[in-house]
Amino acid sequence: MANIHEIARRAGVSVSTVSRVLNQHPYVSAEKRAAVQRAIDELDYTPNRNAVDLIRGRTRSIGVIIPYNNNPAFDRMLSGVLNKSVEEDYTVTVLPTRYDPEKELEYLTMLKTKLLDGIIITSRANDWSSIVPFAGHGHIVACEYTELEEIGCAYIDRYAATLEVFSFLKSMGHSDVAFTTARGETSISTRLTMQAYRDVFGEVPPCRCLDGCTTLKDGMDAARHFLEGKVRPTAVYANGDEVAAGIHQFVLSAGLRIPDDIAIIGQENQPIGQVLQLTTVDHQLFRAGEEALRLVTRGSREKVQIPYRIIYRSSSG
Predict the structure, then answer these.
(1) For the HTH lacI-type domain, which residue ranges apply (predicted)?
(2) What average pLDDT does this structure show over 126-138?
(3) What domains are there in the chain, each with its CATH number?
(4) How many CA atoms lie within 13 A of 11 on its CB side?
C-alpha cells in the first residue's frame, strides 16, 4: 500500500507538502496541490482517517447517550440528531445505557481517549458531579436544563407544559386527575410533573400516579389500575401518545366514553395519537435533537429552550 513518502517522490514535493494537502491546509500552491492529487490518484492512495483525525485533533464523530431505543420519545430526539448530523457532516455513534450509571461513565470516557469530539446526553443516570469532569475532554450537551457553565443544553420547559395541561383540565371541571410516567422520582421529568400537579391540584394521591409506562400495553395496564380503584379519575395525562392509546383502548372496552367519562391527554404528537384524535403535548423532540447536535458540533455552552405546543383534539373535550 502506498504511503505519503511515495506520493511525495512521485509528485516531486516534500512530505510536509503532501501532509498539508491531505489535511486541507490552505497555504499550498494550486500547482503543487494538483501534482499531489495526481500522485494520490495514480497510486490509489486512501488516507488513514484515524491518523488524519489525530493530526487535526478531532474525529468529526459525536456520541449520543440514550437509555433505550425503540422508545418513541428518544427515537424522535435521535432522529433530529441524525438529520442535523448529515448537514454538519458528522458521524453519530448511538450509546445505549438502560440507565446503567457505570455504562454511562464508560461512554463518557470516550471523550478522554479522543474517540469522540462530543457527547449528547438525552437522559442520564449519573449526577452532574460525576459527568462535569469529562467536559474538560470534549463537548457535552444535555437535553434537559442545567445551569452548569460547563454543559450546553437544548431543553424543553416540561414544568410549564405540564402546568398548562393540568390547568386546562382543571378549567374543564376536572379535579380528580391521574397521570403516568416512565420512571419514578429519580427522573427529573417525573419530579417536575408531580410539582405541577401539586401546584394545580394539591398533594398527589399515590393511587393517581403510576410509573413504568412506556408502551401501549403499559397504557392498558395503567387504565385498568385507575379504573379498578374505588373512585375512578375523570382525566388521565399519559407520558406518551402510545401509552395514551393503551388507556384509550381499555377505557372504550370498559364501556366508558371519551371524553365524557374520562378525558385523555398524551404526549409527542405521534401518529397513533393523530389517528385516535388524542389531545397531546408536542415537546418538539426532533427539533431538540437537531439543536443539541448544532450546539455540540460548535462546542457551544448555550442554553437553548425549545418551545412546546399543546394540540387540542376530541379526547379532552
Answers:
(1) 2-56
(2) 96
(3) 4-56 (1.10.260.40), 61-156+286-308 (3.40.50.2300), 158-282 (3.40.50.2300)
(4) 28
